[in-house]
Write a structure and sequence with these properties.
This protein is an alpha+beta fold. The protein has two domains: 98 residues, Glutaredoxin, CATH 3.40.30; 107 residues, Glutathione S-transferase Yfyf (Class Pi), Chain A, domain 2, CATH 1.20.1050. It contains eight helices and four strands; from the N terminus they run βαβαββαααααα.
Length: 216
């Protein structure tokens, strides 16, 4: 049985965004059942968890063949065993891999520079100037991505793949402050991806856990 280690609760601003959601979504798309292994924020610092995830984070994943961490790595592992997430043709597979890494390396750092500053450092004296610069870099990347998607429903292969799952997971962060609405093609693309039934099942599963463990 596949097992996903996840937090039993996080503050409201993080609910629906903890990265075990990416793994849950991939498993739902692939039709692969899994179980939860829930930990709290004290347990993540204990030797047992650190032996599985050296950075005291979630998710951790295991099945009857592997144990691994890092959400995108887990998504790609799931995709390797699922025609629903990864085409079998070598050329299309290479493009999916390229776009998966682009989501993490070319888009996500710029997203996090903006959203992380807004969430955790908005009141700092340096934040306004930094955000102006960070938004400029983010807008450049989003314009480039929007240009690629012009006339395409998905990034590659003519259908939804693991690369779209990762890219949409990154772009969702920009819905919080309305940034994504400034890029209609990207907003439509993101909505197309997260409108999938598998995403709804995945986020419902995560939020159900948090609701069940809400502090009194």
């Amino acid at each position: 049985m596949r097992e996903v280690t996840a937090y039993n609760w996080v503050p409201e601003f993080a609910q629906g965004f903890v990265k075990d959601l990416r793994v849950r979504w991939a498993l739902e798309e692939a039709g692969m059942p899994y179980t939860d292994r829930l930990i709290d924020h004290e347990q993540k610092l204990q030797p047992e968890h650190l032996a599985r995830q050296p950075f005291a984070q979630v998710p951790v994943y295991r099945d009857d063949r592997v144990e691994m961490f890092e959400s995108a790595a887990i998504v790609m592992h799931v995709a390797q065993g699922s025609d629903a997430l990864m085409p079998r043709e070598a050329a299309a597979q290479a493009w999916v891999m390229s776009w998966a890494f682009a989501a993490l390396n070319s888009i996500e750092p710029h997203v996090m520079n903006v959203t992380g500053t807004q969430l955790f450092n908005a009141g700092k004296p340096w934040a306004e100037g930094y955000l102006k610069s960070a938004r400029g870099m983010l807008d450049m990347r989003l314009n480039q991505l929007s240009g690629w998607l012009n006339g395409r429903d998905y990034l590659e292969a003519g259908r939804f793949t693991a690369a779209d799952l990762l890219m949409a997971s990154v772009l969702r962060e920009l819905k919080r402050d309305g940034t994504l609405a400034q890029f209609p093609a990207l907003e439509a693309y993101c909505d197309r991806c997260i409108g999938r039934p598998a995403f709804k099942r995945a986020i419902d599963a995560q939020l159900k856990v948090f609701a069940a463990h809400e502090p009194a």
